[in-house]
Amino acid sequence: MPQKLKILILNWRDIRNPSSGGAEVLTHEIAKRWVGWGNEVCYLTSYFETAKKEEIIDGIKIIRMGSPDARNLFGSVHFQAFLYYLKNLRGKFDVVIDEIHGIPFFTPFYVKERKVALICEVAGRIWDISFPFPFNILGRTVENNYFKFYRNTHFLTISESTKDELMKLGIGGNKITVLPMGITKPKVLPKFKKEKNPTIIFVARLIRAKGVEDAINVCKILKSKFPDIKLWIVGAGDESYVRELKKKVQKSNLEKSVRFFGFVDESKKFELMQKAHILIVPSIKEGFGLTIPEAGIMGTPSVSYDVEGLRDIIKNNGILVEPNASDLAEGARKLLNDKNLYFEMRANAQKYAGTLDWDKTAKKGLEVLSK
Questions:
Q1: DSSP states of 198-240 as a string?
Q2: What is the CB neighbour count within 10 angstroms for residue 138?
Q3: pTM
Q4: Helix axes 325-337, 212-223, angle to 10 degrees
């Protein structure tokens, strides 16, 4: 193993945050392995209701402050972490990881230690879907310009798609390392049978960028050919948006076809993934579609949009389609109607998912930090 390091991570959310996603899973899984290998990891992140200001999780020291939303300016975790670092942590670490989600922590301006940027995806058009005017314009403008300050910083990312986007934004290819991804597999794989009725499943945070509205449209399209079709929506979101989604289901006369599970624990998630026939992934872009191999290990192939971060991992383990509900429904129909193709995709999905290992991810990341 490389030399033992003191590592500081700046990230907008941590694994306990109710709004955490795949990026936080990635960060936590590699950080806890670094600790297990004798390194020291401290994690500055945002505060959320009911959270502890400080705690240790899997050996990682978590310190929480501020809001993850940069629009809070001086109350944001980005500014609060800057102040906390200057007052309490400056010079105490070997390397600082600046994790970027739309807005970075701007560490090139104040961190003198070695710096590494970790970015799962370049937000790009996500700004326009997730934020109202003028914040979408402001966000895109800031993102299109801050990378010039990171040109001497090494980047860690998780897909060739994101590497290509970073290079277009001026980061040299020799300064970008694509990490091999891992997944958290159940210790014992459950053995639930597939549902009697054709069932498609959507698993993600319920936000517009994840395409849950398209998932509902897919169910509506498929219902004409599969009257007993079911759509399971797994994930939590803002209450007002969830109400909007449920109204859409009602207006589409899909109340008996669509079920909202809300947030579920890992055990229930894998159970539902195994019982469903197909995972649909209508995100407008991803860093890495973690739910695809998670469903794959359960023997469930995917149909997803042909976009950044998804096209990197859908090969012979699912179907890629143009980003619209009609094509997504057609991809699902194709799998449901062709048993030979379906079982081939199932086997390939399990085989691919079995190759993913967080130990490999953490080892590669630590090698970069050590250099």
A1: -EEEEES-BSGGGTHHHHHHHHHHHHTT-TT-EEEEE--B-HH
A2: 14
A3: 0.90
A4: 50
Q: What is the CATH number of domain 6-182+358-370?
A: 3.40.50.2000
CA nearest 330: which of 284, 273, 278? 278
Residue of 364, 358, 368, 266 lying closest to 32 (CA atoms): 358
How many angstroms separate the CA atoms of 369 and 29, rounded?
A: 16
40 DSSP β-pair partners: 6
Per-residue pLDDT tens digits of the chain, which is 371 residues long:
457 999 999 999 999 999 988 899 999 999 999 999 999 999 999 999 999 999 999 999 999 999 999 889 999 999 999 999 999 999 999 999 999 999 999 999 999 999 999 999 988 888 888 888 888 888 888 888 899 999 999 999 999 999 999 999 999 999 999 999 999 988 888 889 999 999 999 999 999 999 999 999 999 999 999 999 999 999 999 999 999 999 999 999 999 999 999 999 999 999 999 999 999 999 999 989 999 999 999 999 999 999 999 999 998 999 999 999 999 999 999 999 999 999 999 999 999 999 999 999 999 999 999 98
Residue range(s) occupied by CATH 3.40.50.2000 in the chain: 6-182+358-370, 199-353
199-353, which class in CATH? alpha beta
Is residue 200 within 8 A of residue 295, CB to CB? The reply is no
| CA-CA-CA-CA torsion sign (48, 54, 55, 61) | positive
